[in-house]
Design brief:
CATH topology of the largest domain: inorganic pyrophosphatase (n-terminal core)
Largest sheet: 6 strands, parallel
Helix content: 25-40%
Strand content: 15-25%
CATH superfamily of the largest domain: inorganic pyrophosphatase (n-terminal core)
Shape: elongated
CATH architecture of the largest domain: Alpha-Beta Complex
Number of domains: 4
Radius of gyration: 37 Å
Length: 538
């Protein structure tokens, strides 16, 4: 089942975090695909306190939705141990024509090398030029030849090494030039066997011969093996008894991890000529292989955007993801899709109001704790229902959710806005709820702090302005604004860096200083500050 990430905007506020959680809970309750709430920023103090209050953990923190190796349907071929005989690897490659290579692993599952039909054939050709067997494990030899040792049980043989000779009847002496320790293959030739034993051969392989009964239980330093194969078959398969580690490629192997991004993988693949590349997990253990054709049409991450629909506020890599839905209460921005998607955009004060409505439409009711968290998110985003974005639907939904949770809305509101801002740096407070906007040819950043005591925060005015100046320089903003929104005073103390005349024309404050103004009735960045600037700049 494909995972779908539900994601709020950057520098998420309580509404964005809770919207991701509540919409994922709704979809999972309806039996749809696996929906997972995620975030693309740190959880602020207000949200952290509310999550703890209602017994929830913060959503998974992701940094982008670029397509990774884990997102593609790569192959999962058999993994071979280093001691597996070459014959076994060859048989597996022949069984499945689609396999271009097989990974060879160490005992702990980590990558040792890669083996291909070509590397096996190359080894086989070398054995024709130099018929020498080197340290072939005896069990591998017996398996490849379907053979049996006929020596006495006390005779022990661990491996075979030495030049390989085929001793068939010929005009010349078939054992001419044979050295002690050689491996000799013969048929129904008793005189060859006797001479080989006398010469001190390392091994005599009796191919389709009845001589096995004659020499059964013989005590000898020479290993005697019987096989039902003929001499020519045995000779070729003998060299396939060596461990696969001898023929596997082990140097300069290009491999990829599950978290590698496909953009980087494509670049590496273009610079190499291999047909198959091993895929490793976080512990460097082999879990599969990928080929070039896997990169043509990869499966992309599925994502639902909540509380935003603007690329500049969304998760990096969105262009590589499959956008399947948008739940929002902001203006339509610049997110585009090449196909129809589910979209719910309504002029209400909180995304959770929309999601609460979706619960109702499907005949579902959120659990007590989730209902309380959703009610708190609505209170937070509507600034205790004093924001101009607030609608009667927000009030009714918050009341309904509070009843499910058994809570009093006024008491819950006090909890939401009682987060302690003392002791936090100016930089941390500014970044808590910061958003970037592009209006006409202007690029600006707007931060908002909602409090019940704006006057105490204004005592740190110079500290805030210094941090705002750093931010403006680093990001090259035309303007930087800090809204200190006071719930009780129902207005905003606005600190700004940029053209003072812009603030005067856009908001006409009763008192305007060089970098500060009080804006009575201004509670919303989305519905008052941004539209005011947009109207001014066209």
């Amino acid at each position: 089942m494909s995972t779908t990430f539900v994601c709020g905007h950057r520098n998420p506020d309580t509404d964005a975090i809770v919207a991701a959680m509540s919409y994922a809970a709704l979809c999972n309750a309806l039996g749809e695909n696996d929906y997972v709430p995620v975030r693309i920023g740190h959880v602020n103090d207000e949200t952290s306190a509310l999550l703890k209050r209602f017994g929830f953990q913060p959503p998974l923190h992701i940094y982008n939705v670029r397509t990774q190796v884990r997102d593609i349907d790569f192959d999962r071929p058999p993994r071979l141990g280093v001691n597996v005989p070459v014959s076994h690897a060859w048989a597996m490659l022949q069984e499945d024509p689609g396999l271009s290579a097989l990974p060879v692993t160490n005992e702990d599952g980590t990558l040792f090398g890669m083996v291909t039909a070509g590397s096996i054939a190359e080894s086989d050709m070398r054995s024709i030029q130099r018929p020498y067997l080197e340290d072939a494990p005896i069990f591998n030899v017996l398996s490849a030849l379907e053979g049996h040792i006929i020596n006495r049980e006390d005779d022990f043989f661990e491996s075979l090494s030495g030049p390989v000779h085929i001793a068939l009847p010929a005009a010349s002496d078939p054992l001419q030039g044979v050295e002690p320790g050689s491996v000799i293959l013969c048929g129904q030739q008793e005189e060859i066997v006797e001479r080989a034993l006398a010469l001190g051969a390392g091994c005599v392989i009796l191919c389709r011969s009845d001589l096995g009964e004659k020499y059964r239980d013989i005590e000898s330093k020479t290993c005697l093996i019987t096989t039902p194969l003929d001499v020519w078959q045995a000779a070729r398969l003998l060299f396939q008894a060596i461990p696969i580690s001898r023929v596997a490629k082990t140097e300069n192997i290009a491999c990829f991890h599950l978290d590698d991004y496909l953009d980087d993988v494509r670049e590496a693949v273009l610079q190499s000529r291999y047909r198959s590349y091993p895929v490793l997990d976080a512990d460097d253990k082999v879990i599969g292989t990928l080929s070039r054709y896997h990169l043509i049409q990869p499966r992309r991450k599925r994502i639902v955007l909540v509380d935003h629909n603007e690329i500049g506020q969304s998760v990096p890599g969105l262009e590589q993801a499959e956008l399947v839905g948008i739940i929002d209460h902001h203006r339509l921005a610049d997110v585009q899709t090449g196909y129809p998607v589910f979209m719910r955009n309504e002029p209400v004060g909180s995304t959770n109001t929309i999601i609460g409505t979706l619960f109702q439409e499907h005949g579902l009711m959120p659990g007590e704790k989730l209902a309380g968290l959703m009610a708190a998110a609505i209170i937070s985003d509507t600034v205790m229902f004093k924001s101009p974005t607030t609608t009667q639907r927000d009030r009714r939904m918050a009341e309904r959710l509070a009843r499910i949770a058994g809570l009093d809305l006024d008491t819950l509101g006090q909890e939401v806005f009682s987060s302690n801002v003392n002791g936090k740096s100016a930089a941390a407070l500014i970044k808590t709820d910061f958003k970037e906007f592009h209006i006409a040819d202007h690029r600006l950043g707007i931060s908002q702090i909602t409090t019940m005591d704006s006057r105490s925060l204004l005592k740190r005015r110079e500290e805030f302005l210094a941090e705002m100046q750093k931010l403006r320089k680093d990001k090259e903003y035309d303007m930087v604004l800090l809204m200190i929104t006071d719930v009780l005073r129902e207005g905003t103390e606005l600190l700004f860096l940029g053209d003072r005349e812009v603030i005067r024309q856009a908001f006409n404050p009763p008192r305007l200083e060089e970098d500060h103004a009080f804006l009575p009735g201004i509670m919303s960045r989305k519905k008052q500050i941004v539209p005011g600037l947009a109207l001014l700049w066209g």
